[in-house]
Design goal:
mainly alpha
Length: 243
């Protein structure tokens, strides 16, 4: 397992904040130290700074283990310390569900897409949470710039003990959007109708003028292409309506 970089310790400590007496976080979990939760944390518990630091080190090792379970070791080793620290904070805060697309980006070495994947995790259910949004933005800043001091400017802790991880709201590609499909269908249908009208207008003169004959043939091919495209779009529209 890769050693925990100091940037990760400093970043998580700054964003979680230090509490030496236990408290219930927004999700109702008893928390203490630098965002530490567990069965050993209960109401009325008090600890020392040294204990808080020890638990933080253990929690970051746990986060590293969860990251190792979903990302190839080669991909992890290729990250710089700032990038690795940002991911440890992400996992410390949210966990690491195997099906999340962010791991596919990392395993596929698409590091340019990782910040965008991080920013999808700012919801609890369907509600956008300001604390999560601030935490993700700071992690992206750390990932992108390597500037741990600037990224740690504001605390943004939010419980990592949520029963359900923040909902991911994927952005649909253009041709999976019902509005886009409908608009495309109208556009292609209109173009096809326009081509038919022009063809019907010039057809009576096509035999007398060679140029018009070529134009009519070209319009016929264009109409056929429009028809095929329209059928494809209608199929996509019907598929989308069933979802």
């Amino acid at each position: 397992m890769r050693p925990t970089p100091q940037a990760a310790t400093d970043f998580v400590a700054a964003h979680e904040g230090l509490r030496l007496e236990s408290y219930a976080d927004p999700g109702g979990a008893w928390t203490i130290g630098y965002g530490h939760t567990g069965t050993e944390v209960h109401a009325g518990l008090r600890i020392t700074v040294e204990q808080a630091q020890a638990w933080l080190a253990e929690d970051l090792k746990t986060a590293a283990g969860r990251l190792d379970a979903v990302v190839r070791s080669e991909a992890i080793d290729a990250l710089d310390d700032a990038q690795y620290a940002a991911l440890l904070s992400f996992v410390f805060n949210l966990g690491a569900e195997r099906g999340w697309a962010i791991w596919k980006r990392l395993n596929g070495e698409r590091l340019d897409l990782v910040p965008g994947e991080m920013m999808r995790f700012v919801y609890v259910g369907r509600k956008r949470v300001a604390g999560l949004a601030a935490r993700r933005a700071a992690e992206v800043a750390l990932w992108s710039s390597g500037d741990a001091e600037r990224a740690s400017a504001l605390p943004s802790s939010y419980t990592r003990a949520e029963a359900t991880p923040p909902a991911v709201h994927p952005i649909k590609p253009m041709f999976q959007s019902r509005t886009a499909i409908t608009g495309a269908a109208q556009l292609v249908g209109g173009a096809s109708a326009g081509a038919l009208a022009v063809q019907q207008t010039v057809a009576p003169y096509a035999e007398q003028v060679a140029v018009l004959g070529k134009l009519t043939g070209g319009l016929a091919m264009f109409m056929a292409a429009c028809g095929v495209l329209l059928l494809a779009i209608k199929w996509l529209e019907g598929r989308e309506a069933k979802r």
